[in-house]
Amino acid sequence: MSEPVATSSTSLIPNARQATRPLSPLNLAARRFRKHRMASVGLYLLGFLFVYITLGSLLSRGYCAPLKKDLTGEAYANCNDTSLKLQAPSREHIFGTDVIGRDIFARTIYGGQISVMIGISAAFVEVLLGALVGAVAAYYGGWVDSILMRITEAMLNIPSLFLLIIGARFFGGGLPSLNFFGRELTGSVIVIILIIGATSWMYLARIVRANILSLRERDYISASRALGASDARIIFAHLLPNTIAPLVVSATLGVASAIISEAYVSFLGLGVQGATATWGNMLDGAYQYLETAPWLWFFPGTLILLTVLGINFVGDGLRDALDPYSTRHV
Question: What string of DSSP letters covers 82-103?
């Protein structure tokens, strides 16, 4: 009978150490996020939509009868041929055509690029304003806090959609068109971005203020003051980085909210104007053809729905993953 092989206890130490090695907060958050099923679904949706609005432009080409030549890209998306108006989806136009004969498939691709750009840019403005107002109010306190919070509460009492409609109505056509990476954008795009961002920062400011009120009394903040760190350094290098979780979640969900807000005002005819397509302004006037030409609203509406769902799923996953007190999905 063979003798049992002696196993040195020291040979198991590296594996034991590896098994009991604590996870960093970032690794723990990544593990939680990967195990969040709806967040994974959201990532797949957003990945599909990203491929659609980027690589789909390679398929956006066709013959433009009024110009008597083949066109590609945005030029084809803006080609209007009234002899083809309100055609149902077919082999030549897989999403059909709109009321002036433009190809809806091509317009959903380039309109999606503008809608996503508006969403990301407006969310950036929202996070920038909300983080600054909340951080300054909490850090300085006193009359600074009182004034900034009264302004925040006043903004909260005014419906943001009302402010958005009024701002788009009076300032939407006040700026000239601009060229952005080869794209011709009407000035109303910038106005919509600024208005959406300027009317959606209030909730984030209150969240940031609440977090920084608890952080500013920590020992490392007192040590930074004792070492002579400036107020700006303490706010931007110590306080705001420790408030990154609500900032990331708010930025993610803000993109979805901005896309919906742009669709609201564009549906009312007050959003992005001119030849610049967005998913929102593609719905403008589609209510007149709800039954006779459902493809006018179905395709852009479905893309808005999928984008907002995907972003919200990812936002929920990030909120759970970045919560330091959560034990879910570990």
Answer: GGGTTPPS-SSSTT-B-TTS-B
The span from the CA of 51 to the CA of 307, in Å, is 13
- CATH number for 198: 1.10.3720.10
DSSP element (H, E) containing 62 = strand 61-64
Q: Is residue 115 within 8 Å of 279, Cβ to Cβ? A: yes
The mean pLDDT value for 8-20 works out to: 49
Other Cβ atoms within 10 Å of 69 Cβ, number: 10
Contact 135, 247 (CB under 8 A): no
Token pair in block for residue 87: 């055609």
Q: Strands 61-64 and 183-185, how do they pair?
A: unpaired
How far is Cα 32 from Cα 23, in angstroms, rounded to an integer? 12
pTM of structure: 0.82
Token output for 101: 């004969």
What are the angstrom distances between the C-alpha of 87 and each of 61, 109, 293?
Answer: 17, 19, 8
- Percent of the chain with pLDDT strictly greater than 70: 85
Give the amino acid at 302. T
User: Six-digit token pair at 163?
Assistant: 């402010």
Quickly state the pLDDT bin for 133 (edges 50, 70, 90): very high
68 within some domain: no
H/E element, 216: none
Domain count, the chain: 1
* Domain of residue 231, residue span: 111-321
Determine, yes or no, domain membership for 75.
no
Exposed / middle / buried, residue 155 (Cβ in 10 Å: 0-12, 13-18, 19+): middle
| Structure tokens, 325 | 């007190």
Q: Cβ contacts of residue 248 below 8 Å, gap of 6+?
A: 318, 322
